[in-house]
Amino acid sequence: FDADVCALLKSIQDSFPVYLLNAAGRESLANPSDMRSRSAQHGTEFASRVGLAGMVFLVDIVLEQPQLLAECHQRGLSLFTYGTRNNETKVIDIQIELSIDGIITDSPIYIAAHVLSAASGQAHA
């Protein structure tokens, strides 16, 4: 959540990927005045500059601004999403169409079953 902590973690180890979470000002995350956690543009620029693995955005932001995926990829960053809407299969399907790199959900078994059944051509509620 904190950009400085992410940079520090990245600087002291290379074994585990470090991602910066960004809600573009829609949720209170860390320091409300830190634009790196409040602005998609500032966050991706920072993550790229310090060599983070990627960004984790609130899913609503990515659905409204799907170009964020291309912007992250152009900077060498992967893009993950989080949020309660990631428990909805329709939202997951949209993200699969967009080729989102990772989805954080509270219902991994349900969502995995949906993704697997969709991949095999079966409908899942």
Secondary structure tally, helices: 7
Which term fits the overall shape?
A: globular
Number of strands: 4
Structural class: alpha/beta
Helix content: 40-55%
| Weakly predicted, low-confidence segments | none
Major sheet strand order: 1-2-3-4
How would you spell out the order of helices and strands?
HEHHEHHEHEH
Distance, first to last CA = 34 Å
Rg is 15 Å
Largest sheet: 4 strands, parallel
Q: Please report which band the strand proportion falls in: under 5%, 5-15%, 15-25%, 25-35%, 35-45% or over 45%.
A: 5-15%
Summarize model confidence as the mean pLDDT. Answer: 91
Structure commentary:
Strands 1-2-3-4 form a four-stranded parallel β-sheet. The protein is 49% helix and 13% strand. Strand 3 (78-82), helix 6 (89-98) and strand 4 form a beta-alpha-beta unit. It has 125 residues and is α/β, with parallel strands linked by helices.
Tag the structure with descriptive keywords.
125 residues; alpha/beta; 4-stranded parallel beta sheet; 7 helices
Task: Note the topology.
Elements: H1 3-12, E1 19-22, H2 35-38, H3 40-50, E2 54-58, H4 59-64, H5 67-74, E3 78-82, H6 89-98, E4 102-103, H7 108-119
Give the gist of this structure.
This protein is 49% helix and 13% strand. It is α/β, with parallel strands linked by helices. Strands 1-2-3-4 form a 4-stranded parallel sheet.
